[in-house]
Amino acid sequence: MNKTEVTVAATGLNNTDNPGPGIPFIRGLKDSKEFQARIIGLAYENLEPGIYMKELVDKSYHIPYPTAGSDVLLKRLEYINGEEKIDVLIPNFDAELYTFMKASKKLGDMGIKTFLPTLEQFEERQKANLNEFGKKHGIDVPFGKTATAESEIKVFAKEYNYPIYVKGKYYDAYSVYDYDEAKEAFNKIAAKWGFPVILQQCVSGNEVNVVALGDGKGNMVGAVAMRKLYITDKGKAWAGVTLADRKLIEITEKIIGETKWRGGMELELIKDKNGKYYLLEINPRLPAWVYLSVGAGQNLPEALTKLALGLKVEPYDKYEVGKIFIRYSYDIITDINEFEKLSLYAEL
Amino acid sequence: MKLNRMVAISETGFVFDAETGDSYSLNPLGLNIVEMIKNRMSVEDIKERLAKEYEVTHETLDKSLDDFIWSLKGFNIIENE
Fold it and tell me: Best residue in B9, B15, B19 to probe A by mutation, most A CBs within 10 Å?
């Protein structure tokens, strides 16, 4: 079968101990039997490892941080597109999604296709709005509250008792066991991610995750359930195994169906000892462990690219249970000239 | 008593619960007992079989087997009918 040539730009090349989903997404796409993908890496930092993974990323460009605004981003992407003729762009960070969603029409005018959640979908599942989300869709959610002052921690903990979670609006979550720990986590998160900080009730049980893809019309294109087997001190999965958990997939299908979710997503849930599920978070993009879905038989990166291109996608209805991913660290040896080129010309 | 349908047991004694992702290792005797449960033998029949195969007092056998079955239930490897 002749493969279709496609140029895909992706962010999230930070394949570090706190990995972005860019490289796993690209690996999935490189495994595609339908696409011959030329990959354009979009990076924020000079030392994002993906930039130097030449077997996966054909060319990399610096792009401005989301805080610079969508006009600055669009100007840069216009230049990159002039050089590369990008067909599809897949952003992989929560913090940049808003900027890309706002820019999606103009990107479309440039001929760059995306497949992102709508602003409404993005806002509705924000950590700060999760209680309302749970009520609206009939899904159990641990009680959470937004906080802008340390003093609110004491009031919250009095009602829900320690441990509680202290979370940033985009990233970071700390499980804290007393007021001192809570205060430290609160200030760390506020300094890094700004306000509000989210305080969330802690439900005990096993954490389970789902990677899924919605077609924007209420249909689930694919979903794979996973349990983390090894977690780093940053709380990131370093190993995980696919699960046969029908209930988890049903919850995912319900969320995608009711929200008409558009694009990739990751659900984080807790299954308590009575088998009841509590939704902790919905991340509005494919997660860093998405390559496990490819290994288990659902190439969600390929399916996402097809959706972006407006191609017909057959939904996946099964995957292999008991597939394991194990991350590892690896040293890329490169030359200072490479680093120099990227530093001086913002492309490599 | 029956095996949890989500549990897969290999001939080496490796147990994988596909619903939770938990895994365990059984020693040969443990595997033998689980195989008997899988074949729907009653606890009494299992005891009788083990008493023939091993030099063990009825008291020790009762206690050890009850403890083991209790553990299997606790780990959700077997369940009541």
Answer: B19
